[in-house]
Amino acid sequence: MLxxxxxxxxxxxxxxxxxxxxxxxxxxxxxxxxxxDKHSYSHWLQNAPLKRDKTIALFDGRxxxxxxNWYRIAAVLDFPLLFDQDLEQCADFAMRLWAxxxxxxxxxxxxxxxxxxxxxxxxxxxxxxxxNFLRLAMANSNSYSIKTGAKKLxxxxxxxxxxxxxxxxxxxxHVSVIVDSATSKSPGEPDLYRVGFSFMPAQEFHIEEASxxxxxxxxxxxxxxxxxxxxxxxxxxxxRF
Length: 241
Description:
alpha+beta, 14 strands, 28% helix, globular, disordered N terminus
């Protein structure tokens, strides 16, 4: 029996070794990963699971593969889409991650999202109402709701979980979410961030790869990327749930 157990462990361990987290993505030279309270949303995002490949699944069964679109994919979060409808777009996936954190940490009694006008929309019914709460929130609120309702931030406050929100007037916009951050060992160097998003049509959340700093963005660098790709959606503002 002991021999069988050892053999089984050897067969299983290589599969487990391939499992990756956001915090497994390599740091740039001279930087250290920012640390947060282990019960915080920031810490939870840093330890969110990654898919083993860089394939992004869409709601209708299609897939984006690395190099097949204008993304530069560093990794894809391992959170399969919940719905077979065009619901989990950029703002919706930001809400999804916030909700998943509350579910994973047994805090559904504290979960809120936003009504369209930015007023808080609190979960009622606990776990039994969770999925329908998410579906309705995704169908009836968007980037404007987050821009209007979420907390405004200063650049010096940025941490995982915070969002770059673009929306001019309530129509189409975009939301990107910071999932990791790092600080330099050398004074005067900028903080760096791993940032990702879902998009249209509804699709899994990927982490974008920067062209410098070993794939990490400065705040200004990510805002330049948004201006180049999605500048028509408005100047990004910083928000936090």
